[in-house]
Amino acid sequence: MHVIDQMLDSYPKDLGGVDQAALSKCIAACRECEQTCVACADACLSEDGVTELTKCIRTNLDCADLCTTTGNVLSRHTGYDANITRVTLEACQAACKSCGDECESHAQMHDHCKICADACRQCEQACADVIAKL
Amino acid sequence: MHVIDQMLDSYPKDLGGVDQAALSKCIAACRECEQTCVACADACLSEDGVTELTKCIRTNLDCADLCTTTGNVLSRHTGYDANITRVTLEACQAACKSCGDECESHAQMHDHCKICADACRQCEQACADVIAKL
Amino acid sequence: MHVIDQMLDSYPKDLGGVDQAALSKCIAACRECEQTCVACADACLSEDGVTELTKCIRTNLDCADLCTTTGNVLSRHTGYDANITRVTLEACQAACKSCGDECESHAQMHDHCKICADACRQCEQACADVIAKL
Amino acid sequence: MHVIDQMLDSYPKDLGGVDQAALSKCIAACRECEQTCVACADACLSEDGVTELTKCIRTNLDCADLCTTTGNVLSRHTGYDANITRVTLEACQAACKSCGDECESHAQMHDHCKICADACRQCEQACADVIAKL
């Protein structure tokens, strides 16, 4: 989403020393992981073997919620509070780790879990990269 | 987000006669508009002339919420209910119309409103296109 | 939630001729239905007969998203736009109708579906009451 | 919301040694704080002195997002992952602390900030109580 950078560039005040490239990449990763987790939860729900995928669906739902919230928090710069940013990223990173692990364990059977595991890994790493630069 | 199509392709059951190209485009437009509206609300909040932008901020927040919800609803296909899809799209379309109009009226002064107005127009149209094919 | 009325009373401007009692009741119903639908989706997911409940889970998730968004939209009064309010309420009403019907069909087997059906019916009615007074 | 306990009681499997009273209280506090923060952001936006309240609005929006997500995560028990629960609660606790501090600093001037500060303090404590018992 090139609009992420366009919006960061048009922010009227200083972004406060944040690494804009890492931030932009992380917002994009959160939106992609949000989308993938919502879709993976639903695809799992339509599998014949849904009984084997209930933990995966639950973790998808948690991860989707945390990615949405983290994408939102990272898109706000007014009255910046590094502490909220940090703990939100840590929560998102942990959810992406759990969801990535869970989806990976079904990746050979279900393409949607493979795609979702990749999105989770990328978002987990993108969160770690922003945390490292706070 | 090419993952939107990858996830639609990996859905294990039939998508139910939906126009996949229109659906995919609309989900992408919802995610982009969600992101832009969250960022535009915050950019408006940091403008010196925030007192002139309070209606814009409010409409941004409504539009962001509706785009998130619509992106989620459109990403679920299990137990498809055309009625929920239709009214959700209509609500999103109306919010994008209002937010696009509001942002457009500030587009010459604020780049973030110009970018956001474009995202709203695209999402409004994408919703209309899916509705036309339901 | 008595804080809903406290917050409406402390709003610094005029609420714009809205029926405050109907509004307050509808916000409370949206929050209760949001909570119940999130919990019912998860309870269904843990039932041994989850394969019979996949449509119920999906409808729960849609209804939860729409109740969250509607509770948010109804809690904003700045730059009031009756059109967004109306279509959002109509979408919420439709989701509550679908989810109430679906949960009711499982109410004799699952207490969580019975409780959730009641919350959906109350929210559906509360949305209709606000719409009637717009 | 007495439905929170009704839904916890109707969950078909074991809740996994969680302290149900603390959990129920925390979910209720999250929903109340979510509602109060959404409403406080909008009330601040309608104040004549909105320019003094932009940090408050931003913190309200972050806190609302985190309370919604935390209320959702705490309402899911399928495939329970204590690690996600813990970091989500820590993020919510931090957002409630920041938002409570910010709102408290405006509590003498604005009733909505006073009510919201109270809701944030209660939610911060409720999160701490669940964390202490994990």
Automatic annotation (TrEMBL), chains A, B, C, D:
CDD domains reported in the protein's UniProt record: DUF326 (cd08026)
Protein name from the UniProt record: Four-helix bundle copper-binding protein
Highest taxon above the source species: Bacteria
InterPro entries (alphabetical): Csp_YhjQ (IPR005560), YHJQ-like (IPR044543)
